[in-house]
Amino acid sequence: MKCGLSALLVAGAVFVASPTFADVRQDAKSQVEFGVNVALRGLWREAIYRWEKAVDLDPTYAAAFNDLAIAYEHEGQLDKARRAYEKALALEPNNSQIRQNYELFKEINDRAAQQKDKS
Amino acid sequence: MTAPLSKKISRSVVLGGLAAACAMLAIACGSELYEVPIETPIKAKLDVSAFQRVLVAGFVAGGSDELDTNQETVRLLRSQLRSKSSLRVIDADPMTLIDVAQEQNKVATETDAPAAGRASDGEPSDRNASQPTALPQKIKDEKDLESYDRLFANTTYWKRIGEEYQNPLIVTGSVLFAPRTSAGFVTRETEVYDGLGRRSVVPTRTYMERKGFILRPKFVFIDGRTGATIYSETRREEVLYNSAQSTPALSSYFELMDRIVPDFLGALSSQKIKGTRVLLK
Cα-atom radius of gyration of chain A, to the nearest Å? Predict the structure, then answer.
């Protein structure tokens, strides 16, 4: 059991250090950058498409999940936004920017949930 | 002589290099963050697509004598609905619902009295449980207000009002706007300057007497076609000021209503909540 876990960790570390991972991260990064550029121009649907692609390419990319969460929030898809924020924070628990975004989101999400409960 | 000088120069070069590296790092880090404005849409609590018009009928109001809370609430909600909802607002004089409730209560007491008399003659009856209790003439607190709640459950009455105004959505309810005083220790931030004139802020606990107001509105949304309540919501807000400060009741009322109105409007129309988030690369 212990051997299996160690092998998995080693395999993970090797993958992260491998040129393949670097390529994947680079591809994901260019998708994220493109997404940021279009989001800044107000094209949030296109940004969602890019960031979804980025997290598919690299499911360990916290920034991509953060950006995706913001876009979902902007589109009113609050459940998806929450899941994406939680994923981003699970990947980078000490990232203060992600945490701040999540806290701001929670305020709105709680309010929306209260409205649902009341109705 | 030359050795310490060159040491000094090399040290300053290193420090300069470090500072430049830090600055470059800061710039590099800065370029990875993008603050964006976003607008989160929140769906309306109620589906009001069946209504084209809304009647803000009036409120059972009490608490402070300094302002006509019924009148002010009706006026404020109508103006907000006119500018922020798609419903057409009906202009009508605000109803004095305290009088309506008193009248209804009087009728109910009169019709119940003979039945109660028969019950005391020997027939077992549980009428005492449902017998209307007297309504307070002057509303001073939340308890007084609660006794008026049965007015909103009177579907016959509200259906009649609905028919009178061609079946609109009816907004009514109760509002308590009452003075409140409080005394105790509060934590305040105080500016402190040290010997070098540097400013810092430290929390200090001080005893304070404060006065202000509480606002407790209950909004009741009634279907004018059936007279039935479709949704109701109660909020409670308070504001307290230093007792030396003199704040007019009307300005406190608007300050408190400002906190409540967005939620009220959220019942009828979808809203967009503005904010900013930070995109990362």
Answer: 17
Q: Which CATH architecture has domain A29-118?
A: Alpha Horseshoe (1.25)
Task: Quote the tokens at residue B229.
Answer: 């309540």
What one-character DSSP code corresponds to residue B149?
G
Touching B: A residues 78-97, CB under 8 Å: 78, 97
Test mutation, A70, A82, A107, chain B, max B CBs within 10 A: A70
Confidence of residue B237 (pLDDT cuts 50, 70, 90): very high
- Is the model's pTM score more than 0.95? no
The token pair that represents B4 in the structure block: 């310490």
* 3-class DSSP state of B78: helix
Q: Which two tokens stand for residue A113?
A: 């949930």
Domain boundaries in chain B?
33-280
Burial B217-230 (b: 16+ CB within 10 A, else e): bbbbbbbbeebebb
Tell me the fold of B33-280: Double Stranded RNA Binding Domain (3.30.160)
Residue type, B22: C
